[in-house]
Design a protein that fits this description.
heterodimer; A: 243 residues; mainly beta; eight-stranded antiparallel sheet; 39% strand; B: 123 residues; four-stranded mixed sheet; 11 strands; globular
């Protein structure tokens, strides 16, 4: 049974102190348990257990003063949310049920209100997928959302000399897309100049865009030598869908 | 042969070694890649995929032979959420296909559950 109800209790209107007769509250009751007088319909939190025959409620008793009354102290609660639990043989079950429902309603309301009460310990899911998931590996960083959107960012990567008007690298995305993404090339200018000052025109490009890789490069009007490829790195951004 | 394992999005689950031939296992298929013809200082050419349905860069990322004649190969291990970093270099003879060689960086925040793939599957 999740209630302790041995003996009787004496309650006083306006007082938080409850006195017991033939009770063993020290061994059977702890602070946070719920005290109720049979037929009262109101539950009170136990603030402290002072002795085998005295507990103190968290607020003053609001009912009528009475002695030798049947009482129950609820000791069963869910973990970690402390909703009251019921067991066979409990009394005042309607009161317990109402208290549990109000606590659950309060919990939901606080979650919907956001803030610290909506601070999940694990990422919530939508349709079995985390709302947001992220990571990085040798091929860059990525983020994906439960609605199927995914973005990837490559590391800054040195290019390879292809021929006099083209230096490039192949970017394997850190995670694959389900369909061809949109890829944007970025030249990371780090004050390397031998190529970019001697060629009149350069063009950042992306081609061979697949679901797992793309080629990113820098085209010019010619005149580059292999040493130029070790200059400024390039980077890629890809945006598309993972499902 | 010395190998370094880097974290990637590869579907290759594991490798096996025989001399200077590497066998890659992927989606129930396997394919051999003989690197014995790679001479010292030669530039590694991307593997030509005949059987495995994945990007060549996701099978063998790089390879070179040092002046002492030893091969150094960069292989891939599939990872999911989490910030993953490359393994230390190890002997291919000590390679265990059930081991996660890539390392999770515990100091960088990410969303989701860390995942790495071995012969046993994702874990």
């Amino acid at each position: 049974m999740s209630q302790y109800s041995t003996g009787t209790a004496t309650v006083t209107n306006g007082s938080a102190t409850v006195t017991g007769t033939n009770t063993l509250w020290l061994a059977n009751v702890t602070a946070g348990d719920s005290f109720t007088v049979a037929g009262d319909g109101v539950m009170y939190d136990v603030a402290s257990v002072d002795s085998d025959t005295q507990v103190t409620l968290s607020v003053a008793y609001a009912g009528s003063t009475a002695s030798g009354v049947v009482y129950a102290i609820g000791t069963g609660f869910t973990v970690p949310d402390s909703f009251p639990e019921m067991s066979q043989g409990d009394i005042e079950t309607a009161t317990i049920f109402t208290r549990a429902m109000r606590k659950i309603q309060g919990k939901f309301s606080s979650i919907l209100a956001g803030g610290a009460n909506a601070n999940f310990t694990a990422m919530p899911q939508v349709g079995g997928d985390p709302i947001v998931e992220s990571g990085s590996n040798a091929d860059g960083e990525w983020t994906r959302w439960a609605d199927g959107k995914q973005t990837c960012e490559s590391p800054q990567t040195a290019m390879s000399f292809n021929y006099a008007s083209n230096i490039k690298f192949t970017w394997v995305y850190p995670v694959a897309f389900i369909s061809t993404p949109t890829v944007v090339p970025i030249l990371v200018y780090t004050d390397f100049y031998s190529a970019y000052r001697t060629t009149t025109t350069t063009l950042q490009y992306v081609r061979n865009i697949f679901t797992t890789s793309a080629t990113i490069g820098l085209a010019s009007d010619g005149g580059w030598i292999p040493a130029d490829a070790v200059g400024d790195p390039m980077q890629g951004l890809a945006s598309g869908r993972w499902k | 042969m010395k190998i370094t394992v880097i974290p990637t999005g590869t579907p290759v689950t594991h490798y096996a070694f025989s001399g200077e031939t590497i066998t890659a296992f992927c989606k129930g298929e396997q394919e051999d890649f003989d690197l014995s013809s790679l001479v010292a200082s030669a530039e590694f050419q991307s593997v030509v995929v005949d059987t495995l349905d994945t990007s060549p860069s996701q099978i063998i990322r790089a390879a070179y032979r040092d002046e002492a004649g030893e091969l150094h190969v960069t292989l891939c291990q599939g990872v999911g959420s989490g910030h993953w970093e490359a393994s230390d270099e190890l002997d291919s003879e000590s390679y265990n296909p059930d081991t996660a060689y890539v390392k999770l960086n515990q100091e960088k925040e990410f969303s989701g559950t860390p995942k790495v793939t071995t012969r046993q599957g994702a874990m």
